[in-house]
Amino acid sequence: MASPLQDDDGIFERLRKQNEDPKVLEERQQAVNERIHTIYQKAQTRLAELIDQNSTLPCTISSVQVLNASHTRKGFLEKVLSPLLSSNKDHPYTLAEALQEVGACTDKLHKFDIFQQPISVYLDKPSQTDPSTTPTDLDVYLSVKERSRFLLKTGTDLGNAEGSAYANALWRNIFGGAETLNLNASLGTRTRSAYQATFETPILSDPDFRFEIGALASDTQKSWASHEEVVKGAWSRLRWMSAAGHRHELGLNGFWRQVTGLAGNASPSVRENAGDSVKTSISHTWTKDQRDNPILPTKGFYAKTLSELAGWGPLKGDVSFWKSEIETQAAVPVPIPGLKGDSGISFTTGFRAGLIYPLGMDSNSKPQLSRINDRFQLGGPTDVRGFRISGLGPREGPDALGGDVYAAGSANLLCPLPRVGADKPFRLQAFVNAGRLLALKTPQGASPTSPQEVRESVASTLSELANGLPSTAAGVGLVYAHPVARFELNFSLPLVLRKGEEGRKGLQLGIGISFL
């Protein structure tokens, strides 16, 4: 017969084993988490009901304070936050309006990229001993945590048919006004070396209105045209976003380019462009992006235009032209009859086109024909799939010379992988894409030598784009949308090729952030 002491020992042993059982511990933790979540949900519901019941009550914001922003200038923050104060408003807030304005203000602070998320917001009543306060006054406190001011990063990059190793140094919030200095150095398979420094600052404490200056030195191997290009230069840019969400960028650019390192079999046209060239230009970029995902869109549209004026009027250099490009993309989800919710199937289309219009320099009205540095290149895994890099357009011997006018389009059907699901970043795709790249030629097939001939050559070259079928390829492939880049492995089959163009039948790997 067991003694009472032995019975107690057995009970304690069973309790100890129960406490050590991973399954029991997991169930207890899950129950605790569910209880906490329920309490949180009830608190949020009560808070929402309380705010809703008092949403029309009048209130005034008497002060706004930012806590823990030790490296950020007070004057910089005042420009951001002063519109919140009721003294700067022509009518009082309701509680709902005040909360909405505070939320918009914290969103604005996030855009400067100097504070960690989230920014905590606290509301309090001012001291009743202050005779200047009123019963409707509220004090707003924003508790922030500043992001690290210094960041040093090294790694490797894959994109746009190139691999590289890089080192990047970032100095954030330099003078306490969200200024940023970014230094970057990289060595790659195609861009042999690149060194870049940029300084950016917001204007008038507006995160959507920024000024940037930068400098660049790079050495790029262009094997498709039997040469290397060395570029050194600087730029200044003004960026802003309109109330409708349109992004603009206005730039002044100055670059010294060298076509050097010619291969032994370089064509006469490439040799003619060898040596130094200086370009000074102004540029404007407009962008509108309403896609749900820029890397793998399933709905929405994207549009971008780029205009550049070089070597005209006060702009100096030895090249003179007007260059314009347009890029669009649209995506629509494809519903499946009988299937509720998102099927994960989408249909996307893309279109790109560009034109270089030669201009005269200074008092010389004779147009300056485009150089190989400035011409468009077309073909490769990130634009017209099924062709080699720069495989479309005018050629001379082994070299792709580029062109002055181009147009390219694509249509893609993307489907989720079986047994993977629509929420995963993997897709099967079927595509067809096409394009043409042409040099400016007069109706007689010669290069233009006068403004009149330039106008005629532009008209005849644009009409030639629609003459016959464009160079076309189709295929199927696998797409993986990583947060920083898109990976495509496609099997492509060229369907239409012109004389001299280089197709790519078989597997083709594309890595980049912008695909046709």
Could you characterize what this model shows?
There is one protein chain. This protein has helices spanning 4-20, 22-53, 74-81, 95-111, 268-272, 451-465, and strands spanning 58-67, 93-94, 120-124, 137-143, 150-159, 162-172, 180-188, 191-203, 206-222, 227-241, 247-260, 275-289, 300-310, 321-333, 346-358, 395-396, 399-400, 405-416, 426-438, 471-481, 486-496, 506-512. By secondary structure, it is α+β, with helices and mostly antiparallel strands. The chain folds into two domains: 58-143, membrane protein fhac (Ubiquitin-like (UB roll)); 150-512, membrane protein fhac: a member of the omp85/tpsb transporter family (Porin, Beta Barrel), CATH 2.40.160.50. The strands form three sheets. It has a 16-stranded antiparallel beta sheet with strand order 5-6-7-8-9-10-11-12-13-14-15-18-19-20-21-22. It has a four-stranded mixed beta sheet with strand order 2-1-4-3, covered by helices on one side. The longest helix is centred in the N-terminal third of the chain and has 32 residues, at 22-53.
